[in-house]
Amino acid sequence: MTVNVKVPTLGESVTEATVATWFKQPGDSVAADEMLCELETDKVTVEVPSPGAGVLGAIQAEEGAEVSVGAVLAMLEAGSGKAQPAPAPAANPSSGVNAPPVPRGPVSRPATPPSDVKAAAESAAPSVGTPVHAPMPSAAKLMEERGVAPDAMAGS
Which residues are registered as beta bridge partners of 41? Predict the structure, then answer.
């Protein structure tokens, strides 16, 4: 079955375009929605997708030809031959971005921390009533208004 590949609607008040580039040649297998050609106007550049899978037949409008909206660009022999799936676009990470890390399995950790780490953690723990840092300005103002000393406050 032959399907006509037509010029799509190009936008408001745009009625003509120029065939800029053909991505496929007559006899090439195409997949559904694979880009066949590119059309240019003074306002927009449009890629024309294949209306179905098949083999590209005769090209009716060569590169550089002026075409109107709805004009036939090419013929597509739908379902003929083996249509190749459209190639997936290559993933190009933006510059400066590293690939995500690949999980390598569970991470082994010691069951109990070494004694020097445990001792350092215990010595750094504040005792109750000892301020670790100066109170925030709003808390300091409230403690001053109520007559409460910072070292008398226990943290939560």
Answer: none
